[in-house]
């Protein structure tokens, strides 16, 4: 089984990668922080640098290839953000990822 973990470079997503890898699960991790991505690779995860708010179909195709399950941990949670920033990251990016996955036959 291969799991795609979004938002893997911090918080819940990083902990999800650690949890899955400790159980021998194959993980493809995505996030914006390339330095943390290198640490995830040392844990045995495959890292794909991606910002879901700017996701394009070619990135989605790489991210979702051969994935059995999605753990969507990516979110914007800053107390200083605008409603527009929250909507872009937490609603529109999630919707876009779902549509792209469905378009690739992954939903």
UniProtKB/TrEMBL annotation:
It holds the Pfam family Epimerase. SUPFAM superfamilies: NAD(P)-binding Rossmann-fold domains. Residues 3-97 form the NAD-dependent epimerase/dehydratase domain. Transmembrane segments: none annotated. Signal peptide: none annotated. This is Short chain dehydrogenase.
């Amino acid at each position: 089984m291969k799991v795609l973990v979004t938002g893997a470079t911090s918080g819940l997503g990083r902990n999800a990668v650690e949890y899955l890898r400790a159980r021998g699960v194959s993980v493809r991790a995505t996030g914006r922080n390339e330095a943390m991505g290198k640490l995830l690779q040392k844990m045995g995860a495959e890292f794909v640098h991606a910002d879901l708010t700017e996701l394009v179909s070619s990135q989605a195709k790489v991210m979702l290839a051969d994935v059995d399950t999605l753990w969507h941990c990516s979110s914007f949670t800053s107390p200083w953000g605008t409603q527009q920033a929250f909507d872009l990251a937490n609603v529109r990016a999630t919707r876009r990822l779902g549509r792209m996955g469905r378009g690739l036959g992954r939903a």
